[in-house]
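Progress report, Aim 2. The chain analyzed during this reporting quarter is listed below.
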Amino acid sequence: MTGPDGTRYLGNVMSAARSVPGGDGPDAVNPVETVIVDAPAVGPWTVTVVATQVNVGNPGQGFALVISGAIPAEPSAGPGRT
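Predicted C-alpha cells for the chain:
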C-alpha cells in the first residue's frame, strides 16, 4: 500500500503491532496480509495486489480485499470529477 506522500507499506511488516515502511520485499508465502496505519495521511492511497501464483480451474482461487476505518464518502467534486 502506498500513501499520498509515496511511503510504501508491505503487508505484515510491523513494529509494535503497527505497519512500518520498508521490509525485505513482498511476501510470496502467506495468503493473508495486513497493513495497519493509525494516522493515515490525507490524500489518495493506492493498494496494489500482485500474485506470484493464482490457482485457476475448478475451483479457482477466490480473492477478497478489505479496507476499513473512517473512510469518507467519495467527494462530489475534484480533479477528474464533476
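The first strand starts at residue 14 and ends at 15. The CA atoms of residues 15 and 77 lie 37 Å apart. These observations will guide the mutagenesis work planned for the next reporting period.
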